[in-house]
Amino acid sequence: MSILRAENLTKTYQSGGRTLTVLNDVSFELQPGDTFSIVGPSGSGKTTLLGLCAGLDRASSGSVYLNDIKLDTLSEDERAAVRNQYVGFIFQNFQLLPTLTALENVMVPLELRGEKKAGRTAQELLERVGLGQRGHHYPTQLSGGEQQRVSLARAFANRPKILFADEPTGNLDTDTSANVVDLIFELNREAGTTLVLVTHDLELASRTQRIIRIKGGHVVSDTYTESTADLRSGQ
Amino acid sequence: MDRILPKVPARSVSITDPWLWKMAWRDSRRSRRRLFLFMSAIVLGIAALVAINSFGDNLSASVDEQARELLGADLVLTYNKTLNKKTEAFLNTISPERSNEVAFPSMVFFPRSGGVRLSQVKALEGRFPYYGEWEVQPSAAVARFRKAGKTGERIALVDDALLVQLNARPGDSVKVGSLMFLVAGRVMKTPGQTAVTTTVAPTVFLPYAQLPETGLLQRGSRVTYRSYFQFDPGTNVDAYIKTFASRLDKAGINYDTVTERKEQTGRAFTDLTRFLNLVAFVALLLGCVGVASAVHLYVKEKIASVAVLRCIGASGRQAFLIYLIQTSLMGLMGAVLGAALGSIVQLILPEVFGSFLPIDVTVTVSWKAVAQGVGTGLVIAVLFALLPLLVIRKVSPLRTLRTSYEEDVTGRDPLRWAVYGAIVLAITGFAYWQIRDWKMALGFTLGLATAFGVLTGLGRLLMFLVRRFFPVSWSYIWRQSLANLYRPQNQTLILVISIGLGAFLIATLYLTQTLLLSRVQLSASGGQPNMVLFDIQNEQKAGVQQLVQSHRLPVVQSVPVVTMRLAEVNGRTVEAIQKDTSSKIPDWALTREYRVTYRDALIDSEKLATGKAQSLRNQTALISVEKGYLDRMRLKLGDTLTFNVQGALIPTVVGGTREVDWNRVQTNFLIVFPNGVLEQAPQFHVLMTRVRDTQQSAAFQRDLVRRYPNVSAIDLGLILRTIDDILEKVSFVIRFMALFSIVTGLLVLSSSVVISKYQRIQESVLLRTLGASRRQILLISLIEYMLLGLLAAFSGIVLSVFGTWGLAYFVFEIPFVPDFTPLLVVAAVVTALTILIGLFNSRGVLVRPPLEVLRAEV
Ligand SMILES: Nc1ncnc2c1ncn2[C@@H]1O[C@H](COP(=O)(O)OP(=O)(O)O)[C@@H](O)[C@H]1O
Ligand SMILES: [Mg+2]
Question: Model ipTM?
Answer without folding.
Answer: 0.90
